[in-house]
Amino acid sequence: MPDTLTEIPIDQIDEQRVPLRERLNDPNLNGLMHSIQRFGLIEPIVVTPTDEGYLLVVGRRRLNACRRLGMSTIPAIVRRLSTERARELSYQSNLQTQPLNIADEVDFLRRIDIFRLPDADAAQQLGMSPEEVTIARRFNSLPPPIREAVRTGELDERRALALTRLSRETDQTRVFRYIRENDPPIDQLETLIDQVRAGQAPYV
């Protein structure tokens, strides 16, 4: 069935199951709202029909802006998609608009259960390289507080991935605490991790 462009009721759109990002505070949303007020919504959102209404695939910020403006309908491209395909399209849309924080990316990959697949199969399904899937899998092994620290910017991705060299969660947590307190450069951190793995860093 071909895509159709139509106005659909905003209250019939479910945005909870597919969209990638969970952040509620968007500093650029006010600018988007002002633009919509002045020029209307230039680019429609993308939805797929469900038994209850529509599932949002692409355009969460646009939908939120229109909601806050009190609009009752929104221009939308209606496209029939499987849930898996809708998730893939949402993921690719986010990649095209701006680079994803690895914590957001891994949350999405976990949500679509991609880590059950071998790296090569997962990469082919999502248009990633096998190396990117391997890195995502490593990051996924970290405890939730460490992944959240990356999401908020408290911990950079490189040092977070260095922590994945530690197999025990207790060691990852100990070294993460040391990073927060001492902010070591990456080469010093790698040396410390070697010491922890060898059982030679009792001071951490």
What characteristics describe this protein?
elongated; single chain; Conserved hypothetical protein from pyrococcus furiosus pfu- 392566-001, ParB domain; 52% helix; 204 residues; alpha/beta
Number of helical segments?
10
Number of domains: 3
Summarize the biggest pleated sheet: 5 strands, mixed
The tally of strands reads 5
Name given to the CATH homologous superfamily of the largest domain: Conserved hypothetical protein from pyrococcus furiosus pfu- 392566-001, ParB domain
Cα end-to-end separation: 60 Å
Q: Give the oligomeric state.
A: single chain
Sketch the topology as an H/E string, one letter per element.
Answer: EEHEEHEHHHHHHHH
Low-confidence runs (pLDDT<50, min 5 residues)? 18-24
- Percentage of residues assigned to helices: 40-55%
CATH topology of the largest domain: Conserved hypothetical protein from pyrococcus furiosus pfu- 392566-001, ParB domain
Mean pLDDT: 85
Structural class: alpha/beta
CATH-defined architecture of the largest domain:
Alpha-Beta Complex
Radius of gyration: 21 Å
The side-by-side strand order for the widest beta sheet comes to: 1-5-3-4-2
CATH class of the largest domain: Alpha Beta
